[in-house]
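User: Hey, my collaborator sent me this sequence without any context and asked if I could get a structure. I don't really work with proteins. Can you help?
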Amino acid sequence: MNLSELQKFCDPSRDTLALPFSGEQFTYATNGHIVIRISRLTEVEPSEFAPKVTKLFAENPRDGLTAVELPADIPALEIGTCPDCGGAGKIVHLETEMVCDECDGSGHFERPERVAVGDSGFANKYLLWLKELPDVKFYPSGIKPAPFTFDGGDGLLMPRTQ
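Assistant: No problem. I've predicted the 3D structure and written it out in structure-token form, which is a compact way to encode the shape of the chain:
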């Protein structure tokens, strides 16, 4: 996995999560819902955020968990025009034009759907991302982040309760 492939797992709207970052022997990418790690890429800068992610992996091992198959029929992610701003990305509030809070100014929304896997549920968006990874193995663990492995790295996916 290279740097441009890692970028998909980041959140450009959040400064601390906008780019992949490194810590010790790993490079990480996360948007707060999913995190992956691969062997360290020398071109990726270290971050003070890395110890928190390292701890998250340590607290959520896959030891003792059983890998399950990802569902074959994961529904596609519903994407549409933001109902609050009508796709403009801005709203007028008290005669002041502001960035739409609902879509963060994009004019669009994504409506993820919860999909049951094992004893947990996860957003279809991230399960579809996992299916794109080579030789993925998924270990749901109830309400805790679910570990997964793939050819070239591993990660955690946060479950959805609804």
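In plain terms: The mean pLDDT is 92. You can pass these tokens on to your collaborator as they are.
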